[in-house]
Amino acid sequence: MTDTVLKRQEDSFVVHAAAEPPIGQTDHDVAASTVRAISWRFMPLLTGCFIAAYIDRVNVSFAALTANRDLGLSASQFGWGAGLFFVGYFLAETPSNFIMTKIGARRWFSRIMVSMGVVAGATAFVTSPYEFYGARFLLGCCEAGLLPGVILFLRGWVPKALRAQFMGTFLLAIPLSSVIGAPISGALLELDGLFGLKDWQIMFVLEALPCVILGGLVLLFLTETPDEASWLSLEQKAWLRGRFLEEKKEAEGSLHREANRSWMILLDARVLAFGFAFFGALCGSYGITLWLPQIVKAFGVTSAMNGFVTAIPFVFGSFATIIIARRSDRTRERVWHVAGPALVAAAGLALASIVASPFLMMTAVSLAAIGLFGLRGTFFALVSERFSEDNAPLGIAAIGAYSSLAGLIGPWVVGLLKDATGSFVPGMMFLAVMSLASAATLLLNRRLGVSSIPVRIAEPAG
């Protein structure tokens, strides 16, 4: 959020700063009810948006089972085309976050969702590799800003000590998109010829619709600031403002205090270190997500069964996303809750490159998914705590933009190695090395992160 928005919140809350809880209602009761209200108001909608957006981002991995043949794509061409999404994402990410701070999250998130749905649906009608490349690039431009935008949005609603849990809940959308989307995509590939369309065309069209619908719901239900929240009581608003004022006072004179450097933040040491650390983790994540259906296809399963088998690692990743984020908030530790899962991911990817049986392969990939998806909520909670209000919009967006290039490099390198060797083994080893580099970067730059959260607040029961 910008200082203007925060000042508007501050002015509003100051009016009610003396508000006392009703008789019989403790500060813990107000805290619990406030957190519950924010969670139920935003998290189902925002998580649903990211699930729909992520399905449209990665369903190309299932389309490749038949579309590669129809469009004349080699393994490396598919990897490159799938990765071009992230070139558009990289170029548009920081400007997107900047625009959001000017026009508001509600309208900007709605624009992102609707435009994504339109472009994702239109991808069904590409007829050549170059049209496929263009569609993927444009899709990346459309989605850019959603992830860092939501992180910035939650930064203005959620106190620091609970932030990893909220981030983890939102980022649960990433593995859930495959848990939900993989079986659906596999089933839709069985509908070849419906409405005169090929199987992958049907998949692209039908899976694009939720984005458009959710874009409309965002306009109806998203509230920009606590000041505008008619669904919060005066006591809840006062409690929330009190927490933010405590955090602001604590940050004054600490390592969190920094000058407003505007666009120079793009070259900040924290941005570069965090960007590379997440780049390494995302190489493994996108490498698995975009290539796993083709790895599973080699097991000799049908398209429908492929979807269910592919979903298995993401089920484990979903649980890890919530468990690790909650543990990070409970222990008030950040760095090891990111570096540790990255090391687990490296071990899983390395193991996947040396085992032969389908069972052991999926076990190893599931271990990698636990690490790769489990670290995300804590990572973005860590990042959200490292910048001033002025520099947060550009700093968080820049980290997302730099790391997003992993979506191009990871799948492309795996495709190149597959074309060169005829095997996924070298590609899996490459992904393992990148995950290891992610952990090493964080541990070698510990001072750029925080290992504890200084502010403890009353947590809601349950």
Note the beta-strand portion.
under 5%
How far apart lie the N and C ends?
Answer: 30 Å
Figure out the total of helices.
19
Large-scale geometry: globular
Number of strands: 0
Main β-sheet: number of strands, strand sense, barrel status? none
Model regions low in confidence, pLDDT < 50 over at least 5 residues: 1-24, 449-462
Q: Tell me, rounded to a whole number, the average pLDDT.
A: 83
The helix-and-strand class reads: mainly alpha
* H/E series: HHHHHHHHHHHHHHHHHHH
Q: What's the assembly state of these chains?
A: single chain
Helix content: over 70%
Radius of gyration (CA) equals 22 Å
Descriptive terms for the model:
75% helix; mainly alpha; 0% strand; 462 residues; disordered C terminus; 19 helices; disordered N terminus
Quick recap:
With 462 residues, the chain is mainly alpha-helical. The protein has 19 helices and no strands.
Task: Tell me what you see in this structure.
- With 462 residues, this protein is mainly alpha-helical.
- 75% of the residues lie in helices and 0% in strands.
- The protein contains 19 helices and no strands.
- It has helices spanning 3-15, 27-58, 60-71, 75-103, 105-122, 129-143, 146-155, 163-171, 173-188, 199-221, 234-251, 269-297, 303-331, 335-352, 358-374, 376-384, 392-404, 406-421, 425-444.
- Helix 4 (75-103) runs antiparallel to helix 5 (105-122).
- The longest helix is centred in the first third of the chain and has 32 residues, at 27-58.
- It is globular.
- The two termini are 30 Å apart.
- Mean pLDDT is 83; it is low at 1-24 and 449-462.
